[in-house]
Write a structure and sequence with these properties.
- The structure is a single chain.
- The chain is α/β, with parallel strands linked by helices.
- Helices cover 40% and strands 14% of the residues.
- It contains 15 helices and 15 strands.
- An eight-stranded mixed sheet has the order 4-11-10-9-8-5-6-7, sandwiched between helices. A three-stranded antiparallel sheet has the order 12-15-14, covered by helices on one side. A two-stranded antiparallel ribbon has the order 1-2.
- β8, α9 and β9 form a beta-alpha-beta unit.
- α1 crosses α3.
- The longest helix is centred in the last third of the chain and has 21 residues.
- It is globular and about 70 Å long.
- The C terminus is likely disordered.
Length: 443
């Protein structure tokens, strides 16, 4: 227990800081058991209530978890460190298909749009009391949302999809509440939820998105919120179709007070139609990111939802960053107006690469998933072994542990820059990595 590290502090805040610092520095490892509260209180010469308060703070921050009589331990993926430590370091000469990035060749040039936006700002500088949402962006965004069947609602601009998810969760939930999340799902969501002092309830995913029976079970057990990725689900590529959307809306209507958050980060890179769930519950939020189509560095996503949710989000935003740069907002409007991203062409390019790998793997007897987006999910019996063997063969893939809570093991492959020759070589390597090792006899 704890090895060489000694927890210190006399106040609850100091004790919790000592433990959190050790977790962040790697001196306390994920899964490490913490001393019982009375035992630690005796070591530190403090009241057990002080240690209890420190442990409570750490639980709310997502650093530790408590399992009844089994005591408290560092979470398998503590919020202090996040899931980014579950990654493969890519040595020189190894092809990186782990990163989850879009193909730079499919991203539009930004210089002209930003120059025009800057010139507009020079003519009329943005000041503190200006509208935080550019009116041209609001009109263009609303037209796109209307075309996709997203209900009418106020609009905000946030710094990316995850920023939107965090702001909406914080607007409605309190520490200890449970959030139903896709499993496999986005690893950063798995980090964010406990960092807000919330609990996760995993919901199974197939090619059509969250399974309705799993959602029903999670909501019946008391989950206060549900996060759904509509298209290009990370890591599986799942996309919610019309039939699945009807089934999920029926489940949500049974729980009208549940907070629904929809993530449409795949907008602009997928050609599958959107089937939104928004409106099935009283409180909802729909987030549409520009990162995959226009570049991750834009850090911009559109957020709409019911009036109460948006009022809370915008009010809190005004007390922090205030707004997302109107320079960036106006540049995005110009990129849209100029047709900088031809959605059908970009979606088709990713689709060809994704389908080529799935087909090549199938020919080699390997099952893979990827209906949309730029990632392919491959179930594997031995995740660690598969990742290591592929690395030895010259391919860096992403360990599935970054993207799952209780789902079976797998690996994620990003296909965004794969060519035809690459695809065949990678499929050979994956098939070889998943083949059982030959049995060794004794001489």
């Amino acid at each position: 227990m704890l090895g060489e590290y000694r927890i210190s502090g006399r106040r609850a805040a100091d004790i919790s800081a000592s433990i959190e610092r050790a977790v962040g520095d790697g001196e306390l490892r994920p899964g490490e058991v913490l001393p019982p509260m009375r035992e630690l209180a005796q070591q530190l010469g403090v009241n057990p209530n002080t240690v209890a308060a420190a442990y409570r703070t750490l639980r709310e921050r997502g650093v530790i978890e408590t399992a009844g009589r089994r005591g408290s331990r560092v979470r398998p993926v503590p919020a202090t460190t996040g899931r980014d430590h579950i990654r493969v370091e890519v040595p020189d000469g190894v092809r990186d298909v782990a990163g989850g990035n879009p193909d730079p060749a499919l991203l539009p040039p930004l210089a002209g749009a930003f120059a025009a936006a800057a010139a507009q700002g020079d003519r009329a500088p943005v000041l503190y009391d200006d509208d935080p949402v550019d009116p041209d962006l609001a009109r263009a965004a609303r037209a796109g949302l209307d075309a996709d069947g997203v209900p009418e609602g106020p609009l905000a601009v946030v710094s990316g999809a995850l920023d939107g998810v965090e702001r909406v969760l914080a607007a409605h939930l309190k520490p200890g509440d449970t959030v139903a999340v896709e499993d496999p799902g986005w690893g950063r969501t798995f980090d964010l939820v406990p960092a807000l002092g919330l609990r996760t309830a995993p919901v199974g995913v197939d090619d059509d998105g969250p399974r309705p029976e799993d959602v029903r079970r999670a909501l019946a057990a008391g989950a206060r919120a549900l996060i759904v990725t509509d298209r290009a689900q990370n890591p599986t590529g799942a996309a919610v179709g019309a039939a699945r959307a009807r089934a999920l809306r029926a489940v949500l209507r049974e729980h009208p007070e549940v907070l629904l958050i929809e993530d449409d980060h795949g907008h602009g890179i997928v050609d599958l139609p959107l089937h939104p769930l928004a409106g099935a519950t009283r409180h909802w939020a729909f987030i549409r990111s520009a990162a995959k189509a226009f570049g991750p560095d834009l850090r911009l996503a559109l957020l709409t939802g019911d009036r109460v949710t948006l009022d809370r989000v915008r009010g809190r935003q005004q007390l922090g960053p205030g707004w997302v740069s109107l320079l960036t907002q106006r540049a995005l409007v110009r990129l849209w107006a100029d047709g900088a991203v031809e959605t059908a062409g970009v979606a088709a390019a990713y689709g060809r690469r994704r389908d080529a790998l799935i087909t090549a793997l199938a020919r080699r007897g390997v099952t893979a998933h990827g209906r949309s987006g730029m990632n392919v999910w491959v179930p594997v019996p031995d995740e660690t072994g598969a990742v290591a063997r592929l690395l030895h063969a010259g391919w860096a893939v992403s360990p599935g542990a970054r993207f799952r809570l209780s789902a079976p093991p797998g690996i994620r492959i990003t296909v965004s820059t794969l060519g035809e020759a690459d695809t065949q070589a990678l499929a050979d390597a994956v098939a070889s990595a998943l083949r059982p090792a030959p049995a060794r006899g004794y001489v």
